[in-house]
Write a structure and sequence with these properties.
By secondary structure, this protein is α+β, with helices and mostly antiparallel strands. The chain contains four helices and ten strands, in the order αβαββαββββββαβ. The strands form two sheets. Strands 4-5-8-7-9-3-2-10 form an eight-stranded antiparallel sheet. The protein has a two-stranded parallel sheet with strand order 1-6. The longest helix has 12 residues.
Length: 204
């Protein structure tokens, strides 16, 4: 049985006793070096303050730039960059998308039940959940954030102080708006859109 077949079988399970994981080898998370000249050019092209702490999210309809907040969520930002550099997010589904609320992704099985197995201690902060906010998904345990995150379509102030905000969409929000929406109260999506690729802008 191939690894792909195993993943597809696991994705059919409605509920798992514990989260499935996708391991990331430390050797896969190596930081790429970028010259000062190249970094300056990239910064100009994408109009970001810090290329090392900014992401380029490619969706089916266009490019989205996310600026991260290492000052308020340093551990989450560092882990997200590790996963991005390991190409963990490439091809993952937006498995839960609720119109007017948020689009969630980051589960390696496309079911909302998976992660990497490395839980993160919550870094709740004063950043508001507003249109374009990128925040960490979690279970009931506040320290259960792993690889899943969501992007807010609009203001979601009731989430403030309960989820770790680690980034903000600064351009391309119209392409986030175009992500295929789910049906029903939980926002489960049939034939969902995927992340084409996710990169740290400094590495481009």
């Amino acid at each position: 049985m191939t690894e792909e077949t195993k993943l597809l079988k696991k994705s059919n399970a409605p509920k798992l006793a514990k989260s499935e994981t996708k391991s990331i080898k430390s050797a896969e998370t190596k930081k790429l070096s970028v010259s000062k000249t190249r970094s300056k050019k990239i910064k100009h092209n994408y109009q970001v303050k810090d290329t090392e702490n900014s992401l380029l999210l490619k969706l089916k309809d266009g490019d989205v730039v996310i600026e991260m907040f290492p000052d308020v969520a340093p551990n989450h930002v560092e882990r997200i960059k590790e996963l991005v550099r390991a190409e963990f997010y490439n091809g993952l589904k937006f498995h839960r998308v609720i119109d007017g609320f948020m689009a969630q992704t980051g589960c390696p099985y496309g079911t909302g039940t998976g992660g990497t197995g490395k839980k993160l201690k919550a870094e709740f902060n004063k950043m508001p959940h507003k249109r374009g906010t990128v925040s960490m998904a979690r279970a009931m345990d506040i320290n259960s954030g792993d690889s899943q995150f969501f992007i807010c379509f609009g203001d979601c102030s009731w989430l403030d102080g309960q989820y770790t905000v680690w980034g903000q969409v600064t351009s391309g929000m119209e392409y986030v708006d175009a992500i295929k929406k789910g049906t029903g109260g939980n926002g489960e999506v049939s034939d969902p859109d995927t992340i084409v690729s996710l990169q740290v802008i400094a590495d481009i």
